[in-house]
Amino acid sequence: MKKSSIVNRAIVNSLALCLCTSVAVFGQYDLVLKGGHVIDPANKIDGVMDVAITGNKIARVERNLTDPAKKTIDARGLYVTPGLIDLHAHVYVKGGSGSLFPDDTALLAGTTTVVDAGTSGWRTFEDFKSKIIDKSRTRVLVFLNIVGGGITGDDAENNTEDMDPAATAAKIKQYPNLLVGIKTAHFMRPGWTAIRRAEEAGRLSGTPIIVDDRILTGTERNTREKVLDVLRPGDMHTHTYNDRQLELVNRFTGKVQPYMLEARRRGVLFDLGHGAGSFLWPVATQAMAQGFPPDSISTDLHAANILIIQPDMANCMSKLINLGMSLQDAVLRATVHPARQIHRFPELGTLGVGQTADIAVFDLQTGVFAFKDAWSKKYMGTKKLECVLTVRDGKVVYDQNGLGFPEWDKAGEYGVIP
Ligand SMILES: [Zn+2]
After folding, report:
1. How far is the CA of 351 from the centre of ligand 1 (A)?
2. What does the pLDDT look like over 339-367, one tens digit per residue?
3. DSSP character string of 80-101
4. From the CA of 301, how far away is ligand 1's center (Å)?
5. What is the C-alpha separation between 61 and 303, in angstroms, rounded?
6. Would you kindly state where each structural domain of the chain is located, as residue ranges?
7. What does pTM read for this prediction?
8. What are the tens digits of pLDDT across the range 136-161?
9. Which of 59, 72, 179, 196 to pair with 159, CA 20 to 30 A apart?
């Protein structure tokens, strides 16, 4: 036998040994979350299941999987959901301060997809993409501001000259995988110019719009006309539970306004957009009691409110759960609904087999907890949702309690990191 074939045979043998070892030791899946209560509204799953991941994809969701895995995490007593989608946050800044890097705030709350709501416009998007989106482990999608420069202050955001529907739509068509719609925000001049321009960009690009728009005296705008005549089915209005953007609850009677119910029937969608000023207990409690939950739950998280109200997704969901929303419904409005609203369902917002493995694991705690609103009033609740583990693109990126870590005394000599 020639020397080269001896070498080849040795290589083949060692490869075979290697493969056998890997099959015997590592098995079929890369990661299994075992025995958690899975809530996957898209697939009508609400019960104890195992979730198996191969590579970056969901491989199986079934009871009592017995196939071996490289890594198994015990999720008993915890809730396992699709990674959350935060429909309204701010993760970019141009020439100022206010935004947060997505990985620093999203992943530890179970949020695997952040939709930046208008911080950039068509003129600043490339800068946003290269500095943040391309470097973030969190998936970042974007509503492009109808203002070309994005959110940079009142003068710029009131400049209708910089609201160019054609240029905005062209940018969306250039990056259809990242740009999911158009935002209009903070317009203080009278009339509907900002919303109309956003709608025109939406028509040209085939994407929805999300509106952050005031109704104060002097704007010549009111809620009724806005939700019944101006916004179209599929358009979204954020800041549902404040009192300056929408008059959801009649201040004198405490009743949800009939035009809001009519708008919902028309297909206009309402997003929470908590932020520093847009979650008020008087509005939220009455709206929830009368059956007007937000269609999508979102944080409007930015640098100014994270220290005051800490409205991450788990915090926002906890508040609604304390006001009577079921955990299952909160998950629906933080996964399936936002995915649909940005036309990204079912590739986002589900644990469907073959989809990207973006997963959140929660502990639903009971006790007495204080939850703060935008008027610095607190509500004492009895349930609190806390994210304990997040999987993004098949990898565990956050593990608060070391669920996936070995016990130190089983890992070998003290000081030796396995
Ligand atoms: Zn915002």
Report:
1. 28
2. 999 999 999 999 999 999 999 999 999 99
3. EEEPEEEEEE----SSS-----
4. 7
5. 37
6. 84-348
7. 0.91
8. 999 999 999 999 999 988 889 999 99
9. 179
